[in-house]
From TrEMBL:
PANTHER family: SULFOQUINOVOSYL TRANSFERASE SQD2, TRANSFERASE. It comes from the Bacteria. It comes from Spirosoma fluviale. This is Glycosyltransferase involved in cell wall bisynthesis. Residues 54-197 form the Glycosyltransferase subfamily 4-like N-terminal domain. Keywords: Transferase. Pfam families: Glyco_trans_1_4, Glyco_trans_4_4. The keyword RNA-binding does not apply. One of its GO terms (molecular function) is glycosyltransferase activity.
């Protein structure tokens, strides 16, 4: 089978990137696999990408050319936000190619992508035709304009039927499937299939426990990083933090004033495995509706 994987990388590497790479590796066993990757940019280039995400002609042309040359049997999209945009779904369908879309988060249900407003679960957008309350609350990047535009992109493609063109939606858990089923998005429930994340069994390093707690993941509000820092500051327990994200500067400042908090930066796969096998416990203080975190799966596999 010829499979085309399409993915848009966020500015900060996350679990979706790891899932995309592992799936690519697995599918190459017995299949022909090619990838088409987009990258979200910073500054004015990123602003243009975001604005044109409603109908990105550049991305459409790239997908069209890839399909014409590779002639895939199926297209699997992992993330369209925001450098490629949803219109690439319509491009694939014009060639008669089945489309799978993995729902790693809740972007189609709320502009926040996490069903969060600040540190609070926010589900109002799920039941609204257009999420005006989310726009008022600035749930995406604390911006009325950006929240409105992202909401408009999803709403526009709902109105022109783009989301109905997807042949199968892959969700990570039964909980996520129920959220999508109960929303106003209007996806056929039969199209929502559960496909859990997975990890390859790592090498056992036989490390000695070092007596510290460990957090590995995206450094952002929904991951509970603020809660983690406030808990360990001025504490006798040692905490090591690895990862990157919007709160990286906050973590660096905390590590500079609290001798028991250590910021490790971004770790490679070996570093993650080593850290998990030497820590007392892996901490996971998320406050949003998690999907199926790769970090927890990796910890279970050790």
């Amino acid at each position: 089978m010829k499979i085309l994987l399409i993915h848009t990388h966020y500015q900060f590497r996350g679990g979706e990137d790891a899932v995309f790479e592992q799936e690519q590796s697995l599918l190459q066993e017995g299949n022909q696999v090619e990838t088409l990757v987009f990258h979200n940019k910073n500054g004015w280039r990123g602003a243009l990408q975001f604005f044109f995400s409603v109908w990105n002609l550049s991305a459409i042309i790239k997908v069209r050319r890839k399909i014409q040359v590779f002639k895939p049997d199926v297209v699997h999209i992992h993330n369209w936000h925001y450098a490629s945009g949803p219109a690439i779904i319509r491009t694939a369908k014009r060639f008669g190619v089945p489309v799978l879309l993995t729902l790693h988060n809740y972007r189609l249900l709320c502009p926040s992508g996490s069903l969060m407003n600040g540190n609070t679960i926010f589900t109002d957008s799920m039941y609204a035709d257009f999420p005006w309350k989310a726009v008022q609350l600035k749930v995406f990047r604390d911006s009325v304009v950006q929240t409105f535009w992202l909401a408009f992109v999803v709403w526009f493609h709902k109105k022109i039927g783009t989301w109905h063109l997807v042949d199968r939606y892959l969700v990570l858990t039964d909980f996520a499937r129920n959220l999508y089923r109960s929303s106003q998005l209007g996806i056929d429930p039969a199209k929502l299939l559960i496909k859990p994340n997975f990890v390859q069994r790592p090498e056992q390093l036989r490390q000695i426990r070092a007596g510290h707690f460990l957090y590995i993941g995206r450094l952002s509000d929904e991951k509970g990083v603020n809660i983690l820092l406030s808990t360990f500051q001025n504490s006798a327990y040692k905490l090591s933090i690895a990862g990157d994200g919007p709160l990286a500067d906050l973590v660096e400042r905390a590590s500079s004033v609290s001798s028991n908090i250590h910021y490790l930066g971004t770790l490679d796969r070996y570093g993650v495995q080593q850290g998990m096998q030497t820590c007392t416990a892996l901490l996971f203080p998320s406050i949003w509706y998690e999907g199926m975190p790769m970090t927890i799966l990796e910890a279970f596999s050790l």
